[in-house]
Amino acid sequence: MQSKYQELSTKLTQMKVPSPDYLQTVVDLVVSGWNINPEQALGLADIALPTLRQQTAYQELARILVFVPKIYLERGEFNLALNLIDEGIEASEQSKQERLKADNLINKAYVYKAMGKTVMANAILEETLQLYKKQGINKLIGQNLNELGQVAKLNGDLLSALDFYRDALNYLEDDASSQEYGVALTNIGEVYTELGDYKTAEQYILRGALLLQDSQKSAQLIETYRKLAHNALGQQDYEQALQHIEKAFNVMDSTSQGYRKTKLYVPYSQALLNLQRFEKLKNILDKALTMALEHGLDNEAIEIYFVYVDYYLAIEDVDQAATVLQTVLDFSSLHRLAQHKLFALRKLANVQSGLGQHELALKTFRQYHDDYMAWLQDQKSNKLIEYQAIFQSHERERRITDLENENMQHQLAHAKTQQEKHNWMLLLAVVLLTVCFIVIRFYQKRKFFNMKASLMADMVKRKNQMLADVSHELRTPLTALKLTVEALQYKLLDDVDEAYRSLDRKINDMNNLIGDIYQLAQSDIDSLQLNRRYHHFPSLLAGWQSELREYVLSQGFDWQFNNLLSANFSVDLDNEKIKQVLNNLIANSCHYTDKPGVIRLTVSNRNRNVRLVIEDSAPGVPSQDLERIFERLYRVESSRSRQTGGSGLGLAICKSIIEGHGGNIKAESSELGGLKITINFRVIVVEEQ
């Protein structure tokens, strides 16, 4: 997993944004690196999640949400984790992926287990177990049984926990060298430690440790060393306990698991306390408490405080022990750690009694009794609430099932009635349809032939008109060429160089006309070549604006540019072709606008569309001609004249290029008094972060 994470990290840094594979690479990197680099995983998830939600990519959304909540679970942010898990469950249901649903559900069980809601955790684990069994994936079944064993252990049912762990081994035995098999072995060993059978416990934990030794699951290996240390403490082999904890520290130092050290400082301190290494113990306790408070590990902080108490009692500083216990009481009340508060009250009563403060000790013990009874009542109430929540959930599912069944019965009965009603109508309908079909077929066939004849006639007419127009357009420069050549032949011209320059211009005009005709022909057969790629639009626009401004000013017109872009983004287009469109339109405005005049370019964006508006001052175009100016060789007689030059195909070419980009172009009157051309690109627009 580590190598895959490094490979994906390198790949992501080399990718361009946007890229078709970028989002998928981000998701894969979160999945592979959530426990290696949690902060980076959360940052990448913030990029991926909004896009996946917007695209309703339910399968990938459910997949990434299997892993992101694990980070918040590690941090103790349970409500945030639950919200994301519920979203993952819904996404997996939308994508109909039962495996992803089970993976998201089991995360919910992990959160409930961490919150102490073992009843709800157990109910979800029973549900996921059935889903995994349905899919027949033994590895996942074994992991699920391991979790059921953990919940049973938390509930104090050690024998049931053993049964779950042994069942897990049965499902994992096909790969008895796997990491999951090793975890199950260490879990069994931990139960035997709790039962006081330390030798058997040690055998199981050591077998599991061998399987986890070379694994990439450092957190599980650290937990295994903690279990071995706990077992050694039970056997009063404190030196051995220290050795196991030192090994766990070494694993942490070689990974990014350093923050977990706090959880090991308690057994480490207990071993040092029993070995009476008080000076080292005090340094360790100070370091451990600071780390626990910095990481918000309230339970670990309380346990460290208790070791402080044992330390002060061991060095016979009873007053300081009482002071620490009072700190524990205040801390427990502030963070609602009821069980720790009870333990602190009982221990404080013993310390006060040792100090001869018997009345104060009696008062503390009474408070302990009252708080203990209240805690028992809260536990019963919380369990009842959990059972009620499970019952209500099952009741809702049962009612939904009953309603679905009842609705299905009604639908079947109604369908049967409707079928009987429609059967007799079907024959009549078939007869009527047959008659109608014959009549309609005859009518459509006749209409088709008439339409075909009309279309053929129209196509011939349009072709003849096109040929006539093109011939006329070619005849004009050819006639001029012929006259110039004859003048040169008979030496009628004084300025021969100017004559040759005139010939060159006429040849260029003919070449441009033929090029325009060729480009339109390509568009007609959908062969217009577009070299589309992503461009940073603000930068592209700056280059266009600079060139167009210089051209307009050189022609003696005023230039206005309005940049109304509201975002920083990239667009997918052919830069040269769009630039050709803008040059054609701006040149058109310069040709047909009276001097002094104004030419304006306005650029804006909305709803992933880009809009370009080119306007000029008087004279304008009559309203009846606005819809036709994009037709080939169409000229507005009042304002378009061959004296201005051009083939009459420029606007038609502009239209073909814009439509080739999936956009549209239209003409209307401008408030400046001239013509207004509006271009909308329906192109992919990717906002840049």
Explain what this protein looks like in three dimensions:
- This protein has 689 residues and is an alpha+beta fold.
- Helices cover 72% and strands 8% of the residues.
- The protein is built from 24 helices and eight strands.
- It has helices at 2-14, 22-33, 38-54, 58-64, 68-75, 78-94, 98-114, 118-135, 138-154, 158-172, 179-195, 198-212, 218-234, 238-253, 261-274, 278-294, 298-314, 318-334, 338-354, 358-489, 496-524, 537-554, 575-592, 650-660; strands at residues 533-536, 558-564, 569-573, 598-606, 609-617, 664-669, 673-681, 685-687.
- It has a five-stranded mixed β-sheet with strand order 2-4-5-7-6.
- Helix 11 (179-195) packs parallel to helix 13 and helix 23 (575-592) packs antiparallel against helix 24 (650-660).
- The protein is elongated.
- The protein starts with a helix and ends with a strand.
- The model is unreliable at 638-645 (pLDDT under 50).
Care to give the gist of this entry?
By secondary structure, the protein is an alpha+beta fold. The protein has helices at 2-14, 22-33, 38-54, 58-64, 68-75, 78-94, 98-114, 118-135, 138-154, 158-172, 179-195, 198-212, 218-234, 238-253, 261-274, 278-294, 298-314, 318-334, 338-354, 358-489, 496-524, 537-554, 575-592, 650-660, and strands at 533-536, 558-564, 569-573, 598-606, 609-617, 664-669, 673-681, 685-687.
